[in-house]
UniProtKB/TrEMBL annotation:
SUPFAM superfamilies: GST C-terminal domain-like (SSF47616). It comes from the Eukaryota. This is Uncharacterized protein. GO terms for biological process: glutathione metabolic process. GO terms for molecular function: glutathione transferase activity. It comes from Macleaya cordata (Five-seeded plume-poppy).
Length: 135
């Protein structure tokens, strides 16, 4: 099975976006959807790798690496800004360990925007959407 086929990132991206831009009950619903989507991604990874943890040596599988670090790499910033728990190490141990390992790769560190700039961007997106929702 090809990881590009088995892991559809769109639902994950959409639910993460809703967690970032909603409050209250709407955010809680988005969190439930995000948890469901993270579980599906984790199950897809486990199925593709047949229970063997994928190696993050910078060689394989590139699509999965990019997907995980792009969508979930800044999860701690989103958690800080929104107050929502994005990745729970107990609920999503595989995703947590993979994202943590990816964030330590020199190439990822080099390509990741500075923490303060990324946090400012997440805050801006959230505030802009919350303002437009209230008008």
């Amino acid at each position: 099975m090809d990881p590009e086929i088995s892991i559809n990132s769109e639902p994950l991206f959409q639910s993460l976006g809703l967690v970032m831009t909603k409050e209250g009950e709407a955010q809680e619903e988005a969190m439930k959807e995000l948890a469901k989507n993270l579980k599906m991604v984790e199950e897809g990874i486990q199925e593709f790798f047949s229970g063997v943890r994928p190696a993050f040596d910078g060689k394989s599988p590139i699509f999965l690496n990019i997907l995980l670090v792009s969508l979930l790499g800044p999860y701690q910033i989103v958690e800080k800004v929104t107050g929502a728990k994005i990745i729970d190490p107990e609920r999503n141990p595989l995703i947590f360990s993979l994202v943590t390992a990816l964030k330590e790769l020199p190439e990822v560190k080099e390509a990741t925007p500075p923490h303060d700039k990324l946090e400012a961007l997440v805050r801006y997106i959230r505030e802009k959407d919350l303002q437009s929702s209230s008008t």
